[in-house]
Protein 1
Amino acid sequence: MPKLLHWMPQNKKRPNDEKLSDLLALIHQHNRLAMADISTLEEAIEADRLGFDLISTTLAGYTPYSKVTTEPDFELLENIVKNVSAPVIMEGHTSKPEHVTEALKKGAFATVVGSIITRPKLITERYVNATKW
């Protein structure tokens, strides 16, 4: 079972002044996997260098310095896959089956579909909006 270690660049202060590399080592000492939630290619490369087991695009478009999109950022996904050795998980704005197919074609190890299946209000709104001409 993966242990989620929230990504935070090395130069950012962590709670209790913990170092990301120390937390990652602790997780690995307990034979757990660590997944980095990243928002940019640079963060993905750094997470891979540090030894994260999985890299996910979870924060792409949600940080003030990452490209905002309403669709999955397939360009980011492709660039990450080309530049890291860890498996890459596509997460964020994955709202259609075609998004999953495209992500897998572009090299994603897996995809996450979240609110499109866990938030019925969003699903209903999409159908309602589709009926408005």
Protein 2
Amino acid sequence: MLVVIALGGNALIRRGQPPEVEIQRQNIRLAAKAIAEVAREHRVVVTHGNGPQVGLLAMQAEAYKQVKPYPLDVLDAETEGAIGYLIEQELCNQLPEQPIVTLLTQIEVDPRDPAFACPTKPIGAVYSETEAKQLAQERGWAVAADGNVYRRVVPSPEPKRILELPTIRLLVKVGALVVCAGGGGIPVIVTPAGSIRGVEAVIDKDLATALLATELQADALLLLTDVDAVYVNWSTPEAQPIHGTTPQQLRNYSFAPGSMQPKVDAACRFVEGTGGMAGIGKLEDAAEILRGDRGTIVKAE
């Protein structure tokens, strides 16, 4: 089988941990063991998040005033390379005979996407209201309140096309384990003349992974996180896990928009687009989720 595995942010940095390299390396080592268990029996493609890492680079750039801050698409590329390096290295240690490659991945978005008119994703440092408004005027940023502070917010457009898809297909065909589309990929637009240009945006990694898995016609999509399943009535005494379900059934519920909802949307899109199986659950349960023994299993009716 061809299995696409999306590593949630907890695979890199656990809740409350600082985004230090050695901490990430230790966490990724555990993730690599779970991926390797699947990869010993199946072909595997891996994606991952990058939110804290992009935010850290943005804050570090603010400390060096002699150079203008790098645009967000470049920060996306930097983190995709850095995180991919750590994942690739730990996977090589687990699977010494397996060809493994990390691929920077550009994903096309539509410049007319409504998300560009309504930025919602916070990024980088926190500011006072006065500082935020001044930066918005100087740099053309959109800013928004985040509790008692202000932060820059950027659009999160829909992923439309994976530019490196032919290369990914070729690598999978020759037996490589591919790490790609990290952080939702690098958001770009393609001009009418055919040239490519990066844009200041972030693409949801789960939706990008669903697109990737669908285009590859994968047999299974695993969305791995730090909870054992999708729950209805989460964080209430009535919380109940969902085990076996269909896209139609899942779409009857509402989930947290910044965490579980994108995973549910991604699972539904993949199953509807391919007829394959999607699983959502704990990172360490990856092999058991694939077998249908743990997590939330989403299949077509």
Protein 3
Amino acid sequence: MNYQKDWQVKNLEAIKQRISWLHEQPDGVIFSQPSGIHFLTIKKIQFIIQLVLVEQVTLKMNWVQSILNLNIPTYLIFPYTQAMMLGLLWNSQPKKVYIAGFGGGSIAQVLHHYFPDVTIECTEVDTNILAIAQKFFGVELNQRLKVKIQDGREYLEQQNQQTKYDIIMIDVAFGNGYMSYNLATKEFYELCDRHLSKSGVIVVNTLKSNGFEAEYVKTIQAVFPSIYICHTSGKNTIIIGTRGNLINKAEIQEKAKFIQDYYQFSFPLVDRANDIKIIEELPGLNLENVSILQDNVSPGNYFDSWLF
């Protein structure tokens, strides 16, 4: 435990040092760069840094992709990022994690901070976003925190069949609410399953606004028998899939409190655990009325473009 604490003290100081220059920046837009159909824009609001995707044509600035508290950089501000950490309830001491979708790197950086023995492999399709994560969010890549500029599925397909992860996170929802179809199908989740350790867990971020929540749940359930769903205030739906039997709410809350206390997270994991529901508690999903998403056929109204 002392080793862990010593590491965290030194690491937090190093992160704060890397972002210290941002305290001196004025409030407002301090950086903007075109990428795809967006401007990647950094806004500063007092001690908060935001990565905002601004549509180049309409200049809409209503989607904040990543956010950082300069004073507490290990605090996960978005409720959905806090909920992504719920995978720890099923594997509390991960050694190897894969994250598809890096953004500002908040989740990866927090895992890297609290788990000094974990290796985190990430994929991101936009080189510009990776550069922004390093410059404005204090991310430093090393042997334990790696990012490959590559499609998230393609990366997994290229891994040796012996490569196993304790937690796989899929965090690739676009500003328009959709996630790339090749990361939403039964075949993709079967690929994830093959690369999970015995007690491995998958955690998927989706946005309710796209109207495919039931399809996502049913597709993941086709591969992982036990499904947990966490709706957050930010209109995200976090879907957690495991191979083991369902655990009850009392056990979920007990595990969350233990993990929260043991690692002394600066964010409220227990609150997010209280939001977890099982499929039977969400009758509005109507899973019987939707299809499992498959590679060879996609819904005609499913928008699929990496540009968003």
